[in-house]
Amino acid sequence: MQQFLSNIQIKVNDYLFLKDPSSSELGKRIISGSVELMHEIGFEAFTFKKLAKEINSTEASIYRYFENKNKVLLYLTIWFWGWTESKLVFAITNVEDKELKLKKAITIITEDVLEDRRFKDMNERKLQKVVYDESAKAYINKLVDDENKNGVFANYKSVIQRVSDIILEINPDYPYPKMLVSTIIEGTHLQRFFVDHLPGLTSPKTNSDSDVVQEFFIDLAFKTIKT
Amino acid sequence: MQQFLSNIQIKVNDYLFLKDPSSSELGKRIISGSVELMHEIGFEAFTFKKLAKEINSTEASIYRYFENKNKVLLYLTIWFWGWTESKLVFAITNVEDKELKLKKAITIITEDVLEDRRFKDMNERKLQKVVYDESAKAYINKLVDDENKNGVFANYKSVIQRVSDIILEINPDYPYPKMLVSTIIEGTHLQRFFVDHLPGLTSPKTNSDSDVVQEFFIDLAFKTIKT
DNA sequence: CATTATTGATAGCTTTACTATTATATTTGC
DNA sequence: GCAAATATAATAGTAAAGCTATCAATAATG
């Protein structure tokens, strides 16, 4: 499995780039450098000029790959969803028990990745942090309709569809499966941000071993879908 | 009540402005103009230069009230939470039945305001849209810790605390009340955005009369807190 | 009525976001 | 092996955004 996973490549909608960053050495440096730099200084302060310096290239060269920094963040976000889907598929394949399957699925979409490093050009831990903290900025804007029309969010929709399907297996009458799944996913991002920065808006950590955010959403999901 | 409400003023933490916009004619124009302009063109495209033109003032004058556009958005967001809290307090005062009280509370925090206009300098409907679509950009950034230290989020925390308290009245053993409330609040924003722009990530509208987002969260809340 | 505070008008500076041009290095087809 | 195509680097430059400074005009206040 580990072996197989190390051979797969995450595909990202080509609307998001001018030249495929996975197709060249420089492109890969742009991606891994973007993750590093956004993780370090945040999306607002991130510029192509700073990135160019970081990866020993030039601003103009980066512009041949991406139109602007927004598309880079969206690229990373969509890559993240492709990666999440791949983890999800392997986690639930051949699991017969419906409830166990749902539990595994929610664990995947809410987990806090510590180290993964299956992809040598992608620091998944830092990527997850970037996606958690910044991804809403990538799609909550006036361009989202155009991006959506071009199929940009297909990876994200796949993840939601898959988990949604498991919910419907358990309770075919539950009326809001997708709403529940997207609430769990986006809620996880936000709660993790709150735990770190605005603890007054969230619940305190229980014991140090457990992941309170994950517990909360698993509990919420099972109670919500029960008839 | 309506009479009383028209006499109250929403207080916003003074860390957010250099000069209190509610203290002058120009200040009020900056606020109402910001709501109009952000609603129209979105936060990214919003600039103090454009705002100055809109309200017949100058860029430099606006800079005497606010350090930057981020603080304006945060000001609007915090005002929105103060306003929400005032609505919440009146909705639940003297309501004895715990479950009814919770239902009213969740209705307030998830409602889609059509017209309100109790505050002549604030278009609440447009403000709500701006807060729904853009507010995450105001606080999800590297400055949040500093802002939080200065008590900026007190209005927001109050709202969460109040609803949280009602949940604990119904079920004192529910372990994650604040997490649930902040998930409902932020989830509402996001689901409304999804319904409009990314319907594939959410559930379809049921019948045109009902508010599916509100229904979903009320259903979710009651099921989740039940023992 | 003198002083103080507020706003407007204008200028300017730095950074960001992006494009264009040319030179150099690398790859690829033949 | 060499010409042609392609990719990248180096550099320059433009427009807008973001922000500060100065000073004059006006309004408020004591």
UniProtKB/TrEMBL annotation, chains A, B:
It comes from the Bacteria. Keywords: DNA-binding. Residues 47-66 bind DNA. Coiled coil: none annotated. Residues 24-84 form the HTH tetR-type domain. Gene3D superfamilies: Tetracycline Repressor, domain 2 (1.10.357.10). One of its GO terms (molecular function) is DNA binding. It holds the Pfam family TetR_N. Signal peptide: none annotated. This is TetR/AcrR family transcriptional regulator.
